[in-house]
Write a structure and sequence with these properties.
By secondary structure, this protein is α+β, with helices and mostly antiparallel strands. It has two domains: 56 residues; 221 residues, Exo-inulinase, domain 1 (Jelly Rolls), CATH 2.60.120. The protein is built from three helices and 19 strands. Strands 1, 3, 4, 6, 11, 14, 15, 16, 17 and 19 form a ten-stranded mixed β-sheet that branches. The chain is globular, with a radius of gyration of 30 Å.
Length: 280
């Protein structure tokens, strides 16, 4: 009887162990099923996000929270309420124009879009296909989509620190091949009244004053730059403001840095948001 009872006890213990192990196996299985479901869900979400980005081709280059990927003087640039803000105060007046520069590459052919809001006395611009100067802090030289608070220049194509105005607002222009010495002095000699003398007006997009009515003062406006080969188009609020065909292979650039500007002058504030880039 004693041995029988002992055997029965072992049998009961073995059965209990089996039941415990079975419960553990079920728990482990449930855990792995849950983990697999979570991973599948995350993978699906990431794939959907990637598919969406690939579909329209635009990539967000400013996250609205930090200056990650951007390089500028923190005296003038910060993030505020989800916007990239450039500001000059009475105590921080500039001696030279200052840019915050995107460090994500040197776009060649691309579309760049977003929104801006600038105070009445503000002067800014979006530089592209630009070089960074080594002797002036945070300075760029290159094509610029001009932006200003009084809406005198917004939409025109102005080449910062080089050929100056390549197309005023409302103009379609062609820039002829450059002839002459490739020196700063020789290039500067071909500038007259802050415009490049090698510029030929080939068409009209409307008068500067009529196009000005599409731009909202001290409010949010959209911009879109379409840059492909030597063809440069600047849109404000989906209206084409200037168009340049640049046949000057000496001074023109096929790729370069991207950045936005605060300009020498009185206190001002400019804000940018929803900055999206599509490389073509």
């Amino acid at each position: 009887m004693g041995r029988a009872a002992g055997a029965g006890g072992k049998a009961s213990l073995s059965k209990a162990n089996i039941m415990t192990r079975s419960r553990k196996s079920v728990n482990y299985l449930s855990y792995w099923l849950l983990l697999t479901a979570v991973m599948t869900s995350l993978e699906t979400a990431c794939l959907a996000q990637k598919t969406k980005a690939d579909k329209d081709g635009f990539v967000q280059i400013f996250d609205g929270k930090t200056l990650k990927g951007w390089d500028g003087d923190p005296t003038y640039w910060r993030v505020e309420n989800g916007n990239l803000v450039g500001e000059i105060t009475p105590t921080t007046l500039l001696k030279t124009n200052s840019f915050i520069i995107w460090r994500g590459g040197e776009p060649g052919d691309f579309e760049f879009k977003g929104e801006f809001n600038i105070t009445q006395d503000g002067n800014s611009g979006i530089n592209y296909r630009s070089d960074q100067l080594t002797d002036v802090p945070f300075a760029l030289r290159g094509y610029q989509a001009d932006i200003d608070g009084k809406i005198r220049y917004t939409g025109q194509n102005y080449e910062e620190r080089k050929r100056t105005t390549l197309a005023y607002r409302g103009q379609k222009t062609t820039i002829g091949p450059y002839e002459g010495e490739n020196t700063p002095e020789a290039i500067r000699a071909k500038v007259s009244r802050n415009a490049w003398t090698g510029m030929t007006v080939t068409g009209s997009l409307g008068s500067s004053d009529s196009l000005k009515t599409f731009i909202k003062p001290e409010d949010w406006n959209t911009f879109r730059l379409v840059v492909k080969g030597n063809h440069l188009q600047h849109y404000i609020n989906n209206v084409l403001m200037s168009e340049v065909i640049d046949n000057d292979t000496v001074n023109g650039k096929s790729k370069g840095l991207l950045g936005v500007q605060v300009h020498v002058g009185p206190p001002m504030k400019v804000q940018y948001r929803n900055l999206m880039l599509k490389q073509l």
